[in-house]
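REVIEWER CHECKLIST
Item 1: Sequence provided? yes
Item 2: Single chain? yes
Item 3: Sequence as submitted:
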Amino acid sequence: MAKPGWVRLPWRRAESHADDPYWDVFLNTPPADAANSVLEAIRRAPEGNVFPTRADLHTPDVTTSHVQEMARYLGADLVGVAPLDGTDASGYPFAAEDDPGTARGIGGQVPVQNGLFVTFVLSAWIRELGFHATMTPDLDGPRLAVAAKLGTLDPRGRLVTAEYGARVHVADVIRTDLPLATT
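Item 4: Structure as written out by the authors:
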């Protein structure tokens, strides 16, 4: 009989998944149809409208800290802000996980899914504040993360941070006209 207050969770076990044939398939087999992937569903989701009345904001420093706090609340581990040009700034959360580029199957794509979730919701939140925000996957996220002083690039062009080393996935960049201070 278990002690009062002690709960045994059946799924928390130290055993390997060697005896589970579905585990390997889940982790190492790409989806037969990319349209069934959560990644494609989020990427194809239409952006919402920008709220017509802009919110009253504090200084760019305070607004930046609010954006960083929101991104961390949504699951980002590190968040940086770097200028893209004279008018736009970019806030980009990214999840510190294994490199999903080496994962063949959908199970290994969890960092990408988490990054897309954070950038999608954070972009929507910025639009609700009355400012433009869009996810931009074609910008060089690792280079912009270095510009935001979040780490350095290794010889392969991957971001390396003090907290997570090279095991970092940089999510899509968010382009916005929200007045932010660079970090």
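Item 5: Key structural point noted by reviewer: The CA atoms of residues 30 and 106 lie 6 Å apart.
Item 6: Recommendation: ____
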